[in-house]
Amino acid sequence: MTLQHMGTRKTGSVARLLTASITGLVFFAAIIFWPAGRIDWIEGWLYFGLVTTNLLINFVYLRRINPEVIEHRLRLGKGTKLWDKLWSVFFTPAFLAIYVIAGFDAVRFEWSTMPWWLWPLGFALWLPGNILFTWSMGVNPFFEKTVRIQTERGHRVIDTGPYSYVRHPGYLGFLGWSLSTPLFLGSWWAFLPALLSIVLIVIRAALEDRTLHEELTGYRDYANRVPYRLIPGIW
């Protein structure tokens, strides 16, 4: 590959990342404030600012530690499992419903009231979960957004960092995101889709673990060394 081609490819990657980031943030703002029916929602802006800041920090960290994972998470990899595509059909609306119901509940219709002091509790759940999720991406170059065996990339078992404690630390970290969102946005009713999304995450972890057992060389030995999928001492 010539230097010119490398430069063109890098420029294209940056453009895709920038486009995806801006589009994602615009959509994220809409999914928070449209259900609320107003833009002067303090909790909504605090949450949006927290997520945006976190996105920037994660980008800087991954760009330094594991830049290839950024590129590969921008696209759908060849060979994604059919069951994973079907799973996303159920998970995506369940997860987005957390924000929709929170806006309806906390602002537009005020179905329930949550005390302000639960916001720090949400942060206490979100922060370690997000650190764990980002750490998992930092040490795992195969941390794509869909489940597949990445044979073209020399897919191998990763057993360092958080993967030396549980086999799917990224999922464990994401559970903190799901649980903290209703607390950040002040909605008791938002816990319903949040809990549903957690159930779906656990199901995906089990299905992915079975796929890796069957198709990834060395995974069975790794599973013997690290016996827990998500929570040490439990499962």
If you had to describe this structure to a student in words, what would you say it looks like?
With 235 residues, the protein is mainly α. The protein is 69% helix and 0% strand. The protein is built from eight helices and no strands. It has helices at 3-36, 42-65, 67-72, 82-108, 118-139, 169-185, 191-215, 219-225. Helix 1 crosses helix 4 (82-108). The longest helix is centred in the first third of the chain and has 34 residues, at 3-36.
Low-confidence stretches: 2-8
And the CATH topology?
Answer: Four Helix Bundle (Hemerythrin (Met), subunit A)
User: Averaging pLDDT over every residue, what do you get?
Assistant: 90
Backbone CA Rg: 19 Å
Task: List the domain count as a whole number.
Answer: 1
Shape: globular
User: Which structural class do the helices and strands define?
Assistant: mainly alpha
Q: What's the SSE pattern?
A: HHHHHHHH
The biggest beta sheet is recorded as:
none
CATH hierarchy, class: Mainly Alpha
* Cα distance spanning the termini: 46 Å
How large is the count of helical segments?
8
Report the helical percentage: 55-70%
Name the beta content range: under 5%
- Secondary structure: number of strands: 0
Instruction: Based on the coordinates given, report the CATH architecture.
Output: Up-down Bundle
